[in-house]
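Notes from the 1:1 (GR / supervisor)

We went over the backlog. Supervisor wanted to see one worked example end to end before approving the batch request, so GR pasted a single chain during the call. The sequence is below; no edits were made to it. Supervisor asked that the structure be written out right there so they could see what the output format looks like.
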Amino acid sequence: MTANPPNFTKQAAKSYQKLAEQLVLIFRNVSNWIQFGFEKGEGYELQTEVKKLLKDLHQTKTLMKDAADSLEYNPFGKKSIKELQEMKQRIYYLNQGYTYLSSIVGTFVAWSAAGTITPLQVSEWTEQLMAFIPFLKHKETWLRLNSQVRY
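Structure output shown during the call:
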């Protein structure tokens, strides 16, 4: 009987999927917040959610690193290595989405407190935030975008 090294790819994939779903949900919540009231208290709650998302992002990246380390000497891990490489490419977009979201929520809270946003701006920001969601949800979109990005 042979002992194979552990394969943590499934755990990393579950964490990644949960992170993507959380990010999509927060984008929707921010969009709805802007569209349906723009109350300052709700903005602070969204800022807290975004901060929690950063913790989850770091946890997912750590799990992905652990999964990569676990596959280093695993002779049966070729499929998992490919899956992990795709996740690493897609996490780039989740990270960019998080960065964008974390920077704009504070601005929106300030606008909410000042009451300086117009109905036209509400409409434009709502549309812009909702436009990100397909890019965060669909694997095919990420892979197509990644093939076009020059590092």
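Supervisor's comment: Residues 92 and 151 are 12 Å apart (CA to CA).
Batch request approved.
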